Protein 1
Amino acid sequence: MKTGVAYHDVRDLRHVVEDLRDMVAHHCNFVVHTFSETDLTYYTRTMKEICHASKDLGLEVYIDPWAVAGVFGGEALSRFIAENLDDRQILANGKSAPAACMNSPRFRSFMKMWTETAAEAGADVAFWDEPHYYMADWEAGSPEEAWACHCAVCRKLFSEKFGRNMPAGMDADAIRFREETVADFFAELCEHARKCGLKNALCVLPNEDPRRGISSWNALASISSLDIFGTDPYWAIHGLPLEEYVRETTRKARMLCEKHGLELQMWVQAFCIQEGREDEVMRAAEILFEEGARNIAAWSYGGGGWTYVRSENADKVWENIGKVFERLQRSV
Ligand SMILES: [Zn+2]
């Protein structure tokens, strides 16, 4: 039984080691270290020390391109998209979006460099988290007029593939093009990660939605160098019924794992939990287990540490994660 937690931001080894010990005390046997562009630019030696300290305590190490280039999930800023204006996604309305284009050769090279650095830091598994196109409805503008990507590279590839210009509206060809782009990007990235000695874990957004990137998880689950696949049905932030949403989403992900011979990894929301709802994190983990997940992770350490993600009673959330992880460990 694998149980783990995501960990971000703390980069002072004295405090990190204290937290890693606390994870072990809360029955975790793996940790997902975020490895943002700030880490990549300024903290590579520190990340190596953090990865080694994690392993010394018996934790398997996943490493996550946290919010890198606006393409992956996370609360961190991107330098790549500030420095490489020609490699950003272009929206249908012509505006440049704060996210890198997955067809940009420069961005693909950058991600390979990220992967090599992550492997050198001592990680075991590359954790590709919530890949997505720029989400206009998360910021401003309707998705119909503000979908990506209309950059020169994408427009050229589109016309070669479909024999016509890229449409202004998101039609069936555009959806297919977007999905094939994401799948091609990850196929190349996963292959490179495998060559670097890393396993590949992919966590897709919990809803299959063409506006956000992919209408069928199957296109990603079928990537040949993928090892682990799953998703993060965060019921509380989406205001969805825990029991039904978590169970149904897990079933769907498990079917794909069985089809493609992948290990199922599912996530428990352990951030932004409202006061009085702390027991729900235990119930969620139990449902994941009942539906066959034997690799369960919580986002994030301590119930979410800082303003944007902190649970109202973060200590109670973290205590409950420890309790349910202990129970699940004992039940197998
Ligand atoms: Zn593009």
Protein 2
Amino acid sequence: MARQRKGEVAINHNYCKRCNICPQFCPTKNLEIVGGKLVSYDRCIACFACERYCPDLAIEVVKIYHVETTPAG
Ligand code: SF4
Ligand code: SF4
């Protein structure tokens, strides 16, 4: 069984100016601007890229946990 890192991000919508930088750096395409608002899905792996590249400190990783995954096949 493999351990996979999962994360959860918090978006501060007051600070976020929807510049679309973080979605471009997110390796799992967990972030997207939908209807003029940044949304996150459930694919975060807590890599901290969004936190690092956001010029407005509008997004942060708030939770990191590990899940056991059974390899397919
Ligand atoms: S921490 Fe990494 S995986 Fe999670 S939303 Fe940010 S860029 Fe994407
Ligand atoms: S980089 Fe920051 S300001 Fe830009 S869309 Fe992402 S959270 Fe919002």
